[in-house]
Specification:
By secondary structure, this protein is α+β, with helices and mostly antiparallel strands. It is built from 7 helices and 8 strands; from the N terminus they run H-H-H-H-H-E-E-E-E-E-H-H-E-E-E. It has an 8-stranded antiparallel beta sheet, covered by helices on one side. The longest helix has 23 residues. It is elongated and about 65 Å long. The two termini are 16 Å apart. 22% of the residues are buried. The protein binds a DNA duplex through strand 2 and strand 3.
Length: 297
DNA sequence: TCCATTTGACCCAC
DNA sequence: GTGGGTCAAATGGA
């Protein structure tokens, strides 16, 4: 997997160089690979790279941390990179902390934070490795016992926000405003996206990784990510990805758990679909599932 | 006066 | 020990 990841990254780099050459000398565009094709191939390389990286999360974090040290973000990071031995193990875990969610939650990527509901801000935190702070909101009608909350984080310089909704509104004022996508997943949906990939650890915390992939493909779309327990009595998660404007929906069904699984942590996904109009850049290679090392699980 | 926002402190999972 | 999430006093605007 590491070898494949390096190959994808190198392929992406080479295509980027080709694209740079084309941009500097547009005359070469005719008769050869077009800039659009190159851009698509670059995108595909990095998308595949992300897919492979997510499949070997047990190995990559330390390596990525090492790369970060080489890159060096300047002040304050020096000591974090100079650690050795036992101390380094602790530092490698920094920034990876994610609290387990015990309630229903879903992620929406939107150019606006407005959703028609009344929210009250109750906190703001600077998140490690994030340039923008994360804002915490709860439903204004908490006196009605409404537990709905949301977290808003600006994810790019462009007005694009990652909004994490936690729990549904129970207050009467917002019942009518509940997003239409908060429904039971329907695996047999005719309007599905179509691509296939391997996911070593698809879990709530990693939905943001999926989100980032979609972001790269189409920044103009409002995309919802919703994850929930597939049933009350299981620890398996289902993830639904829906494009706001096209209505395309994708359901990632969990595999059947086997003894020894960390059920809270591990879910594999197989995507299937038919509509490519919104996420045409995600036509991944169909043989990637063969790369999953089930023995690791 | 009421309500929303800000922000430092605190709690707790990791 | 650290980072993410929440609390609550202080502050400001209507």
């Amino acid at each position: 997997m590491e070898k494949r990841l390096m190959e994808e990254l190198l392929a992406g780099k080479n295509r980027a160089i080709q694209l740079q050459t084309l941009l500097h000398n547009p005359a070469k565009d005719e008769g050869s690979v077009s800039r659009e094709e190159l851009a698509m191939k670059i995108l595909r390389s990095f998308t595949n790279g992300i897919s492979i990286a997510s499949s070997c999360t047990a190995v990559l974090p330390a390596q990525i941390a090492a790369v970060d040290c080489v890159g060096g973000s300047g002040s304050g990071s020096g000591s974090a990179c100079s650690g050795e031995g036992k101390k380094k193990v602790v530092k490698d875990k920094r920034g990876c902390y994610k609290r387990k969610r015990t309630s229903d939650a879903w992620i929406k990527v939107s150019p606006t934070v407005e959703d028609g509901c009344a929210w009250r801000k109750y906190g703001q935190k600077h998140i490690l490795n994030s340039y923008h702070p994360r804002c915490y909101y709860r439903c204004t009608h908490k006196y009605q016992g409404c537990k709905a909350k949301k977290q808003v984080q600006k994810i790019k310089e462009d007005p694009m926000y990652q909004i994490t909704y936690i729990d549904h509104h129970t207050c009467t004022d917002t019942q009518m405003m509940l997003p239409q996508h908060i429904v039971e997943p329907d695996p047999i949906e005719s309007n599905l996206l179509s691509f296939q990939r391997s996911i070593h650890s698809l879990k709530p915390a990693n939905v943001s990784l999926l989100k980032q992939e979609f972001e790269v493909v189409d920044m103009t779309q409002s995309v919802d990510f919703h994850y929930a327990k597939s049933s009350v009595n299981t620890s398996s998660w289902q993830v639904i990805i829906r494009s706001g404007s096209s209505g395309c929906k994708q359901v990632l069904s969990p595999r059947i758990p086997v003894p020894g699984d960390d059920l809270e942590e591990e879910v594999s996904g197989l995507y299937s679909c038919a509509s490519m109009n919104s996420f045409h850049g995600l036509d991944m290679e169909v043989d990637q599932l063969g790369d999953i090392d089930f023995e690791q699980w």
